[in-house]
Every structure is written in structure tokens, then in C-alpha cells.
Amino acid sequence: MEPGLKPPPASEVFLAPGALVPAATAAAQAGPEHVLEPTAYDAILLAGFGGPEGQDDVIPFLRNVTAGRGIPDERLEEVAHHYRHYGGISPINEHNRQLKAALEAELAGRGIDLPVYWGNRNWAPYVPDALREAHTDGHRRLLAIPTSAYSSYSSCRQYREDIADALEATGLGADMQVDKVRQYFDHPGFVTPFCDAVAGGLAELRERGATAIEVLFATHSIPTADAERSGPAALELGDGGAYAAQHRAVAEVVMEAIGEQGTPWQVVYQSRSGPSSQPWLEPDVNDAIAALATPDGEGANRRDGVVIVPLGFLSDHMEVLWDLDNEAMETATEHGLAAVRVATPGIHPAFVAGLVDLVVERVQGTPVAERPAQTDLGPWYDVCRPGCCENVRRGFRPAVAGVQP
To answer: Which terminus of the chain faces fewer neighbouring Cβ atoms within 10 Å, N or C?
Structure first.
């Protein structure tokens, strides 16, 4: 594979005789909602999004991200300036280096002998690189940890498709098995850092004199057609599907956990990139901030402060730095609102420990009743369900860790 190029879409992924889940370990091949049999994994695959690490990387990286959509380079430059503002470097790769090291330390501290391999979907080191390295080291059964907590095409299924692409590109599809931990949006390890962050953000604004504060839980917007297809259709989770429902549920848990049920909050969206004719999830974070600064009737809904919470993100990568730290904070300043953007989980000890807990669940085959989940939606599925998280523009491509549609 040439430098700067991600593997092409897979035409198929190895399916063992009688199995319903491609490239799966024996305990997951039949497609149970939760795998309750212990599985002896050889290694962990930390699956990242990837990001450029220099000005020359920016356009090739964005070509990878938008592959198959036919977007010309001049349009990619409209997004490229966000990266160029920071020297062409996305912080996401450095975060994954830190997360990999933190996971290795946590595993070693618990006496769990599982090496961690890191591979990205859109920039080096790529997923095929990680699979080749693991295979050379003698590992055949991997458990993937995607660096995304929620259900949707872009935050779950696309990771699973890219692993399938990597298995075909490397020729390892029949020789390696790759499962995936469940979506961890409501695992205590993911929720706890946000509880700490929101409580701290509210305290800071109150110290600065704000008395009418609203909490804005921000996440990446996605096309409404994709959102409606996120998660299994049988769950009937309403507008926005599982993606929106999971964010709302986690936001509610955070506010209740810190004793702020009476403080107003809402889920808002950011980083829209589609054509204006295509509906995406709303409201946009900037529109929401502007609305909070506008008197409604007697001005009862007017705010004097906003806490901006990057609930949809694991780390401070480009969408957080540019869309929140630059644009959203500028919008708040323009409208006279005190504002603070609170931290992402990063390598918060609770988050790192929680990811290892998810690994232990699959190693031990932990019963569902013993798996922690802080919303009524969880614990989420170990094996993605048939028809889950379809991309209506691309259809269902080969993917691992899920029952085929």
C-alpha cells in the first residue's frame, strides 16, 4: 500500500462455515447480542480515525476521509485551512499515542498480558499496518477498541468496514479474527470524565458571575438519513435514531449525577460538512448560542453563560479545537455570553480503566447483568445487529463484528 493511501473497499470478508459474523472468533460467529463465552484474545487493536502530521499531509488525508464522494481538492481546501491554522497537524494522532501508552500501563497494572496495536482508518499508521504487525508477532485473535463511543455509520459501522478492508488488503482475512468491544457511550468510564468536566465548568462560570447558565452537549452532526438508521431499527428510538438517543441519555445522566437536574441543557451539533440541500441533525451549536442570547418574550430564556461540552468526542482533535474553541467560543463572545469549553475524556484514569473493563468483559464472557451501563439503553450489543447503521449513499459494505444484513 502506497504512503498516503488507505486500502480500497473490500469485496468480501472471510466467513467461516456456518457463521453469521465475518472474521469473528468462535464465541461471536453465531451473532449473539452479547457474547457470554470467555475468549482468549491475543492482542488489542486500537482503531483510530487518523489525522495529518504536517502541511503536506493535509490534502491526502482529506482525500482519504472523503474517498468515494468525488470531492475536488478545491473544496477540500475549505476544510484544510482548519488544519493549516495548526501547522497542518491534527492532535488526534498524539492523543492515540498517549491512549495506547495509558492502556498498556493499565493492562500491565492488572496483570493482563495483551499487547496493544494501533491503526488508523485515514492516516498512518493504517489499520492494515497494525494487522500485519500483529500477525508477524504471532497474534491471530484481536479485540478492537474503536475511538468512538456512539452508534452511527461514521462512528461505528465505518470502523468495522475499514477493518474488513484491511483484512482483505493484507490477505489475512482467513487467518485473523477481529471482534469489537461494545459501544461504550454509557459505560461509567466514559461518563465519569464528563461529570467531572461539567461540574467544573459550571463552578467556573458561577465564579465569574454568571447566574443563568445553559449546558450545551455538543457532538458531530450527521445526515438525518444516517441518524435514522443508526442502531437496530427494531428499537424505535425516534428522531435521530440511536445516535441522538444515546447522546440525550448520556447528557441526562451527567446532569443528574452532578445534582444539576434543574440547570437547563440541550444536545447541539457541530462540524456539518454536507450540501445545504441535505438535512443534517440540528441545532447547530452556534445557532443555539445565538438563540440563548436573544430575549424570548419577557426574556425568561435568556442566558448569561454557556458550558460547552464535547460529549461526542474522546479527545481534543480538530473538530473540538476549531469548531468549539474557535467558532463556538467566538459566537458566545459576540453575543455577550460567558463561556467555557470543558475537557474531553482524553486519558482520564476512569476512561482508560473503563476501556480495559470492556476488554475484560469479552475475555471473561461477563454476564449482561454484571456489565455496567448508566442509561436504560445499555449495555449495548457486543455484535452489531443486522441492518445496523446503514449508509444510504453506499449501502451495506463488508464489515466485521456484526451480523450481515
So the answer is: C
Q: What are phi and psi of 168, to 5 degrees?
A: -70, -40
Closest C-alpha among 140, 108, 141, 119 to residue 41: 141
Task: Enter the C-alpha cell of residue 247.
Answer: 447522546
Model confidence, pTM: 0.96
- For residues 158 and 263, give the distance between their C-alpha atoms in angstroms, rounded to a whole number: 36
Tell me which residue range forms the domain holding 278: 188-341
- Asked whether the beta carbons of 62 and 80 are under 8 A apart, the reply is yes
Buried b / exposed e along 98-119 (16+ C-beta atoms within 10 A): ebbebbbebbeeeeeebebbbb
Dist CA 289 CA 273 (whole Å): 20
Q: What average pLDDT does the structure give for the chain? A: 95
What residue type is assigned to position 352 of the chain? V
- Does residue 261 form part of some domain? yes
Q: Look up the CATH number of the domain holding residue 302.
A: 3.40.50.1400
Domain count, the chain: 1
d(CA 213, CA 266): 12
Asked if residue 86 belongs to a domain, the reply is no
How do residues 311-360 score in pLDDT, each as one tens digit?
999 999 899 999 999 999 999 999 999 999 999 999 999 999 999 999 99
* Sheet strands side by side (includes 43-48): 116-120, 43-48, 141-146, 177-180
Q: CB neighbours (10 Å) of residue 68?
A: 9
Q: CA 198: distance to chain centroid? A: 19
Residue 305 and residue 293: Cα distance in Å, rounded?
A: 9
